[in-house]
Write a structure and sequence with these properties.
Distance between the termini: 54 Å
Radius of gyration: 23 Å
Low-confidence stretches: 223-240
Helix content: over 70%
Order of helices and strands: HHHHHHHHHHHHHHHHH
Number of strands: 0
Structural class: mainly alpha
Length: 421
């Protein structure tokens, strides 16, 4: 069990190519799930939040198979790449569902300990990277493919670390260390998420605004000491690139997303992906499955003649089969896969955690930070993150129910004693 728990902690706290490990762990978790189910006479219940998330996942998987088998395109599709994408999502989905079944029987502190251990390991890796960060054009990746992915994990875990520190010195030190060291990922998206959350949660009692300012200072300091590149906006050209983007869109609307108006490839690809994602919802309100967007994106540009509008190097590479089109957002990717049902489901999850803010403000902020990061970023195992957040929500509710039941029993006992006298 120790090996299993350690492996689960590694899988949740990294975004490396861990699919083979996830398959093995999922097999072990499935066996444990069957044994548990047998003990419970084959009865199993889910919270509404978990049911909603798993329904979204199930619809995405079904849609993926249907569109792979019956989708028609006016150009040759790469079936192998599409199948690999579906396989990856199915592996992630199965692991997330079985992770829920395994951790549900664990305690509130056990689940939080996964976050603490993962953060501590990532802290150690970041410290090992520190000399390179200070002396070369290098940003900390920790246990992730790239700095933005490390920033995504930071947004998910940093508030959960402060959720269970209480009077535990070790946990407090891990929380403070990771909240500071994790900033050396110098991720623009991480910086943006902290800014948005700081604005939304103005009452944050752990001084979230200070954390945002620290990230701004760290990025600015890194920019000053580095002669190689501008960390804040990746390179100096992008500072003016934003200017050109705003000017182009204000003058030409969606037709301004083109290299013809000096809009950089990054903006053409990302914003055109978001635009096509939104249009996809109206064309296919029940979703198109995962790993299908690449084909649908190209088909949509052909059908609407936007192929002559969204002109850029990356878009050209997509049609040559050398680049992959995506919504550039994990949340949007899932919504496109499952349609309006996913959109409604995510609204329900947001509502559930919003209600929880009265009792556990930090858990609400952790969900908010993770969800916003999922809108801005891709790559990370967001299904695992959502499962852990939902489990913590369930545990908090259970604690309140137990507390209320104890209060009722105490009051009842007190009333009976008074009546007997």
């Amino acid at each position: 069990m120790i090996i299993l728990d350690a492996t689960i902690t590694f899988l949740v706290s990294s975004a490396l190519d861990t699919n083979p490990i996830k398959i093995l762990v999922s097999a072990a978790l499935f066996i444990l799930f069957l044994l548990k189910l047998k003990e419970q006479n084959w009865k199993y219940s889910l919270s509404k939040e978990a049911l909603v998330l798993f329904l979204i996942i199930f619809i995405a998987c079904i849609n993926s198979v249907l569109f792979f088998l019956f989708g028609e395109y006016s150009f040759e599709s790469n079936d192998t790449a599409q199948l690999l994408g579906i396989r990856k999502f199915v592996i992630e989905s199965v692991f997330a569902v079985l992770l829920y079944s395994y951790l549900r029987s664990k305690s509130y502190n056990f689940i939080l300990n996964i976050i603490y251990i993962g953060a501590a390991v990532n802290c150690i890796v970041a410290l090992i990277e520190m000399p390179m960060v200070l002396s070369t054009p290098h940003r900390a990746k920790m246990l992730f493919f790239e700095p933005s992915s490390a920033g995504f994990y930071y947004c998910f875990s940093v508030f959960l670390l402060f959720l269970g520190i209480n009077n535990n010195i070790i946990k407090r030190n891990i929380a403070i260390s990771f909240s500071l060291i994790g900033l050396i990922a110098f991720s623009k998206a991480q910086f943006l998420v902290l800014l948005i959350v700081a604005v939304i949660t103005a009452k944050m009692h752990i001084k979230l605004v200070s954390l945002f300012l620290l990230s701004f200072i760290s990025i600015s300091f890194r920019t000053e000491i580095s002669d190689y590149y501008d960390i804040l906006l990746n390179d100096s050209l992008q500072i003016y690139g934003i200017d050109r983007l705003i000017k182009s869109l204000s003058e030409h609307g969606i037709y301004g997303l083109s290299n013809l108006y000096d809009v950089t490839d990054t903006y053409v690809t990302r914003l055109s992906g978001i635009y096509v994602s939104i249009m996809t919802l109206f064309e296919y309100p029940f979703g198109i499955g995962v790993s299908t967007f690449n084909l649908w994106y190209k088909q949509y540009l052909i059908d609407t003649n936007l192929i002559n509008v969204f002109i850029g190097g990356e878009v050209s590479l997509m049609f040559q089969g050398e680049a992959w089109a995506s919504p550039r957002s994990r949340i949007l990717e899932i919504i496109v896969a499952s349609g309006f049902i996913a959109l409604i489901g995510f609204v329900y999850l947001v509502k559930s955690f919003f209600k929880e803010r009265k009792y556990n403000y930090l858990l609400y902020v952790a969900f908010l930070s993770t969800f916003i990061a999922g809108i801005i970023l891709e790559l990370n195992p967001i299904l695992d993150y959502l499962v852990i957040l939902i489990l913590l929500l369930e545990k908090c509710r259970e604690k309140r129910r137990e507390h209320n039941n104890n209060v009722v029993k105490e009051n009842s006992t007190s009333h009976n004693i008074q009546a007997s006298h």
